[in-house]
Amino acid sequence: MCPDCGLPLIILELNGVELDFCTQCGGSWLDLGELELLLQLEGCPGEESLFAQHSFHPKGKSTRCCPRCRRAMEQGTLGHNAPVEVEHCRKEHGFWLDRGEIESLVKQYTHGKSGCVAAFFASLYEHELKK
Predict the structure, then answer these.
(1) Rounded CA gap, 93 and 54, in Å?
(2) pLDDT value at position 54?
(3) pTM of full prediction above 0.90
(4) Helix-then-strand count for the chain, H and E
(5) Are 66 and 46 spatial neighbours (Cβ–Cβ below 8 Å)?
(6) pLDDT value at position 3?
(7) How far is CA 74 from the centre of its chain?
(8) From start to end of the chain, where are the E strands?
(9) How does pLDDT run across 44-68, given as a tens digit for each residue?
């Protein structure tokens, strides 16, 4: 279930990486390690977990619950130059990104280059951009 709006998440696949996506709010759940796989699809070298690199900076308890264990997640930022607010499961199940946050993170680590991940999310939101 979506930690933001409570609706069921659908599974989308991008070149073998499964993303849990909410069609209502546009948020995404990524299991631990899936962001690194997305970055590899964009041409970034295979890096160790962004959490292992201490790129996640906790800020406190979230009001949202992990879709896997249903426990309260932890708010924090992820990224270096322009950190993005995310929620992280304290049991290391993964993290929640609101609409547009995956694209922001990918652009940070790919130095703004657009690739298959950006095109994938652009196509998801295409109908909204035409409004």
Answers:
(1) 17
(2) 47
(3) no
(4) 3, 7
(5) no
(6) 94
(7) 14
(8) 10-14, 17-21, 28-31, 56-65, 72-78, 84-88, 94-97
(9) 665 555 555 547 778 889 999 999 9
Report the C-alpha gap between 122 and 105 in whole angstroms.
15
DSSP state of 7: P
Summarize pLDDT for 16-48 with one digit per residue, the tens: 888 899 999 989 999 988 887 877 777 766 555
Radius of gyration (C-alpha) of the chain in whole angstroms = 14
Facing residues of 61 across strands?
74
Q: Which residues contact 16 (CB under 8 A, 6 or more apart)?
A: 37
Q: Which two tokens stand for residue 45?
A: 């070298």
Chain-centroid distance of CA 113 in Å reads 18
- Cβ neighbours of 115 (radius 10 Å): 15
According to DSSP, the residues that pair with 94 across neighbouring strands are 31
Amino acid (1-letter code) at residue 52: A
Helix (H) or strand (E) run with residue 4 in it: none
What is the pLDDT at residue 82? 75
Task: Determine the Cα–Cα distance for residues 103 and 117; give it in Å rounded to an integer.
Answer: 8
